[in-house]
Amino acid sequence: MSEGDRRAALAAWITHPDNPLTRRVIVNRMWHHHFGRGIVETPSDFGFGGARPTHPELLDWLAGQLLANAWSLKSLHRMMVTSQAYRQHSYPGALSDDAVNKGAVNPWDIDADNRWLWRMNPRRLDAESLRDTVLSITGKLNPHMFGPGYRDFTYQEAYAPIYTYITPNSPDMWRRSIYRFVVRSTPHRFMTTLDCPNPANLTPRRLQTTTALQSLAMLNNDFMLKQAEYLAKRISTEVGDESSGQVERAFQLVFARRPTADEHAASLKLIDETGLFQFCRMLLNANEFVYID
Amino acid sequence: MYYDESLHVSRRHFLQGMGGGFGMAALAALIQTDSLQAESPTEEPSPIKTHTPHHAATARAVIQIFCPGGMSHVDTFDYKPELARREGQPFDTTGELQFFASKPGNCRGSFWPFRQHGECGRWVSDLFPRLADCVDDMGFVYSMQSKTALHGPACFMMNTGFVLPGFPSMGSWISYGLGSETQDLPAFVVLPDPRGLPPGGPINWGAGFLPAVYQGTTLSSATGDSPIADLFPSVGFGARLTSSRETIGREFLQTLNRRHAAERTGQDELEARIAAYEMAARLQLSAPEVTDLSQETAAIQRLYSLEHEDWGPFGRQCLLARRLVERGVRFVQIYCGAENTTAKKIRPNWDSHEDLPRDHGYWGAVLDSGAAALLTDLKQRGLLDSTLVICATEFGRQPAAQGEKAKGRDHNAGAFTAWMAGGGVRGGTAYGATDELGFQAAENPSYCYDLHATALHLLGIDHTRLTYYHNGLPRRLTDVHGHVIRELIAGQ
Predict the structure, then answer these.
(1) From the candidates B265, B270, B282, B359, which should be mutated to test the interface with A, based on the most A CB atoms within 10 A?
(2) Rounded distance, CA B401 to CA A270, Å?
(3) Average pLDDT rounded to a whole number, residues A254-263
(4) pTM of the prediction?
């Protein structure tokens, strides 16, 4: 058997309709991506060391759908994001007294972890998405696709090379984070602080932490401050110097909604006391900006 | 089954709503105030304390001094009279040996004479006149080995147990295992040499696959620097963001966040993030406070030689370490030396290939001054009993000379010395030995695993049980290795 034949045999085995493992693994990764947690919680480990599926029948059905759709990932993505489970609220309101009287059980009491997806999982923007979203809101995102990545560092030839990160402050460095040139020997502090994993590791599931250092990075990092300034400039350019319109526009851009009357009043007061820049900076630090629900 | 779902899902008290589980875990890591001894049996264990240790700890904090570049054991702590007797004779008669960057030169005895010190009578070279006075508090491992003679990977190995990047460092594991005793400072603080980062850079204090909250936070010890990155607005914005504007801004933010959270009951991660901003504000006060060494008495400032041109910067790092530990920081790592650059006046770390008397002479005096001050100060404050001090390097140096002038030494992964003091270490003891020339560890060869296992033991942790599931394996700091070195532990 030639090497080519051997590889073809391996490929045929991996994709054989009687071998469900491949399909289970990929649909689980997709589910993990959309729902924040896989049907199997250990996406790279379906063996004895891994977690058991919460919904084994669903996993197998999705794996079957992949085969039925000629291995089209796109059709499966569409199926997941149009599903009833995906389109749920992440914060359904409290049960009514009436419902409680009729014996309804508070889902928080039986499935606080949301293992059974009685609500949508709220999602926090990961490091890359956060950076991209900031750039998008300030209007600075450079949508250029393809080609070499951007390098937000200087390089110095030495006994061992020295990489020094710089603030991305020009369009060539305002591309999507997926185009970031990753320096494996020198982790990017801002991104690492925001839970971007070390590229030396395979990271099937990212960890999410909440730390004071993240708050400091979001508040004081030069990139965030410069972008808050760009946001203030964008708003002034678009709606002029009148504060009320600035508040409306800022909420629209950062939260994709209108401010409530209370928020509007508090925002006007903040702008009056500290200026539009500080107001923009604080919106980019808000929980509502960082969490999608 | 390795993967213990209960670690991640059933701690409902902390993990309400899985999406926020790790958020709360992170918060708990920062504000975790229970010490091992104080743990209440009725309290549900927090996610970061699921590996509850079994035995009582003698140490509650660690200060690790790391000497990057490779400290020569035969010129410092490992007395080799036979090497001196063979001075000038060929080291390798076969001609087959190849060192890291050279062929072996002739045997070269220590550049400094050795003397016995203290009641224990341990030998220390004249490079360390002050540390020599502390030997009765120090326990030595003479038989350390590394698996590589490359600086970066060897630093990774000493810090994480693996030569490859991406594994959690000892400080991360210990913070993960024990949590923090302070709400105002990070649990794991790193004080790099003011000249720059060590070989391998921040990977040396990375959290690897552990949650990012356990990674080391670098604290700049240079005067005038902001102690922590992004602690305050970047240059150019500070003037516009006066402290009153900051207060007003933060109040607005937290009001916005609280209103947002009120509509989303049960999502603890939102509360965690609100708390993180409050903690950030506290850090803005506590970090400058801890780095303000002017609060120390003149005698203490003299003890650490803060005014000395060469020794002062490392003295600052050592004094800072004591102040951090006093305030409840769990693990402080101090670097005595930076990344290598091509030699100018002296090497920026211990990597003494061409002129060991010059480079070890410089760094030796720096280490001697700061480390001896630290041990003395900890002891006089009664802190040494509960603070484990570890001094290590990534590998040793060859007993044969290197270079035209035969004044240097090449890398030696086969042997080096590490020492520990305080925190339950039996002073004046030693473990293991090298061969008669100091070429290879001969008696009780030890790796970082044994040092790590011993450190964890002193902290009350069984190194085989401090695990974290990652990609199908319950990972450990000591991998599948490690033995507690009981010979170095008091009362054993």
Answers:
(1) B270
(2) 69
(3) 97
(4) 0.86
